[in-house]
Write a structure and sequence with these properties.
- One of its GO terms (molecular function) is flavin adenine dinucleotide binding.
- There is one protein chain.
- With 423 residues, this protein is an alpha/beta fold.
- Helix content is 25%, strand content 21%.
- It folds into 2 domains: 202 residues, FAD/NAD(P)-binding domain (3-Layer(bba) Sandwich), CATH 3.50.50; 204 residues, 3-Layer(bba) Sandwich (FAD/NAD(P)-binding domain).
- It has 8 helices and 22 strands.
- Strands 1, 2, 5, 6, 7, 8, 21 and 22 form an 8-stranded mixed beta sheet that branches.
- The radius of gyration is 23 Å and the shape is globular.
Length: 423
């Protein structure tokens, strides 16, 4: 009796791995160009926006920056900041707008090169052969929680920022938030504004002004062309790709976050988290330095705006220099979590990408993608949605479509090259 044979792999010109804003922006461009393709999404499209955001979450950039290709924001409040559910509605409307060839609930477990230079994708819905492949599964795949968390007692509820929902869902007692990036600061504020005691570990994240000299800073930086500077010409060069996002918020119509003011209101601030020793939480003595560095970034952005206003000859109101309203009198490097009554900890120290399924020589010694604007050394293999893939807006709702357009041109060139060799 003959053994059953495996079904033949299905074939597509381009396979896209990931059904978020990056993958679907790529799909929009491919569909407009009439190029056969498939989008694989292991969950539901835009799943992170649906399930990994807290209840009061809102955009930190104005609504007008929601400009996915072919579907710019057209609502009544371009300078507002959409709430989580409104963002999901916008994204769902985008999918309905152009009906991409999306296969939800299909996980790509391996990508490898075939002998003829194409790509074999092993998925939970069978095998596929693709002429080219775009990796767009995002950089926020695996939540980071330090091993020190294992030394905390079970009665303390521990959550990653992606699992936090609201202050009411936390147990009684104070909350320690570890991490002062965008999520950490906004979650700490959310709990603080609910009247709960918050302890915050402040890391090296920079902060940004919200409104300066009469206008939203995002408008100034867009108008001046700053957001269009490619990373190769950025003053910080390629190191800008390693930087944490500036913290500010779209809450209450949009405002900046000044942790010094929150300290005056009773939020307890510490330096970077170091570990746990018995009932003691340990912190680095770097709170003052981290606050000063965040302010330095804040003031540098103001200076960029000042320079643009002066060079363009714009009449804009003058604002006084920022004066820190609070500074730590000493560095607290240890806190007894029992004495402090801490009942919950929110780990807001980020994510790591998941590239374990990619069996291609497209990574450097640190495991980071090797690419130029998403084009890798392997012909036909691309990344999309990376932070600072080209500019500040790369990977964001603002400009991920521009990066997808660039890859469309690369996909066309590779396809023409393959056809020329075959002829």
């Amino acid at each position: 009796m003959n053994a059953p044979t495996s079904p033949e792999p299905r074939v597509t010109a381009v396979a896209i791995v990931g059904g978020g804003q990056a993958g679907l922006s790529m799909s929009w461009h491919l569909k407009q160009a009439g190029i056969d393709h498939v989008v694989f999404e292991r969950d539901r499209c835009f799943s992170e926006w649906r399930t990994a955001r807290w209840d009061s979450f809102c955009l930190v950039t104005p609504n007008w920056q929601c400009r996915l290709p072919g579907f710019h924001y057209a609502g009544p409040d371009p300078h507002g900041f959409m709430l989580r559910d409104e963002i999901v509605q916008y994204l769902d409307a985008y999918v309905a707008h152009f009906d991409p060839p999306l296969r939800e609930g299909v996980n790509v477990v391996r990508i490898e090169r075939t002998a003829d230079g194409r790509f074999l994708l092993t998925t939970t819905d069978g095998n596929w052969i693709a002429g080219q492949v775009v990796i767009a599964n995002g950089v926020y795949s695996r939540p980071v929680i330090p091993r020190a968390a294992e030394r905390l007692p079970q009665q303390i509820l521990q959550l990653h920022s992606s699992n936090y929902r609201n202050p009411q869902s936390l147990p009684p007692g104070a909350t320690l938030v570890v991490g002062s990036g965008q999520s950490g600061c906004q979650i700490a504020e959310d709990i603080h504004l609910a009247g709960r005691q918050v302890h915050l570990c402040v890391g090296g994240a920079p902060r940004s002004p919200r409104v300066y000299r009469g206008r939203e800073v995002t408008d100034w930086l867009t108008e001046s062309g700053y957001y269009d500077i490619p990373y190769e010409r950025h003053p910080q060069k390629a190191t800008v790709r390693e930087k944490t996002n500036h913290y500010l918020t779209g809450r209450d119509g949009g405002r900046e976050i000044d942790l010094r003011r929150r300290a005056l209101e009773g939020m307890k601030l510490y330096g970077s988290f170091r570990g746990v020793d018995d009932t003691k939480l340990q912190f680095a003595p770097d709170l003052a330095r981290n606050l000063d560095e965040a302010d330095r970034s804040y003031n540098n952005i103001r200076a960029l705006v000042d320079q643009y206003i002066a060079e363009a000859g714009i009449d804009a109101p003058i604002e006084p220099p920022y004066q820190p309203p609070w500074s730590p009198s000493h560095e607290v490097t240890e806190l007894d979590f029992v004495d402090a009554g801490i009942g919950s900890i929110v780990w807001a120290i980020g994510f790591t990408p998941d590239y374990g399924f990619i069996d291609l020589p497209v990574f450097n010694g640190r495991g980071h993608p090797i690419h130029h604007r998403g084009v890798t050394p392997v012909p036909g293999a691309y990344f999309l949605g990376l932070s600072w893939q080209n500019t500040w807006g790369s990977g964001r709702l603002a400009d991920v479509g521009k990066d997808a357009q660039y890859l469309l041109d690369a996909i066309r060139r590779t396809d023409e090259s393959c056809h020329a060799r075959a002829a």
